[in-house]
Design goal:
This protein is globular. The strands form two sheets. Strands 2, 4, 5, 6, 9, 10 and 11 form a seven-stranded mixed β-sheet that branches. Strand 7 (68-73) and strand 8 form a beta hairpin. The protein is an all-beta fold. It has strands at residues 3-7, 10-12, 18-25, 32-39, 46-52, 58-60, 68-73, 78-83, 92-100, 115-116, 120-124. The N and C termini lie far apart (40 Å).
């Protein structure tokens, strides 16, 4: 069974940057779609970005487009989320999730995912 572990969260001032990592163990992530989601207190979980580990296709929510970049390192079985120009509204718990053979145009839907990490806290505050 696929296990996912997120890391890289922390406290940063608005305008700063963080890089989150999602490391998979148990099985290779070939032909999986990896999604990044976030949840702020009192709000629903939001799809942020996705990447296909097979062909590298990506998706970005409008709220993060131009500021966040998702990438993968197939040799390390790891997906990254580079977050630049962070805003206070980016604050929340960030989760990575994996789905087998999920089309990238549906990757923002949390119900499509089979495996989830524990989450890592991101706080952008002065």
């Amino acid at each position: 069974q696929v296990q996912l572990v997120e890391s890289g969260g922390g406290l940063v001032q608005p305008g700063g940057s963080l890089r989150l990592s999602c490391a998979a163990s148990g099985y290779t992530l070939d032909y999986y779609t990896i999604g990044w989601f976030r949840q702020a207190p009192g709000k629903e979980r939001e799809g942020v970005s996705c990447i296909s580990t097979g062909d590298g296709s990506t998706y970005y929510a409008d709220s993060v487009k131009g500021r966040f970049t998702v990438s993968r390192d197939v040799a390390k079985n790891t997906v990254y989320l580079q977050m630049n120009s962070l805003k206070p509204e980016d604050t929340g718990v960030y989760y990575c999730a994996a789905a087998r053979l999920l089309r990238i145009d549906f990757c923002q839907l949390s119900v499509e995912y089979d495996y989830w990490g524990q989450g890592t806290q991101v706080t952008a505050s002065s």
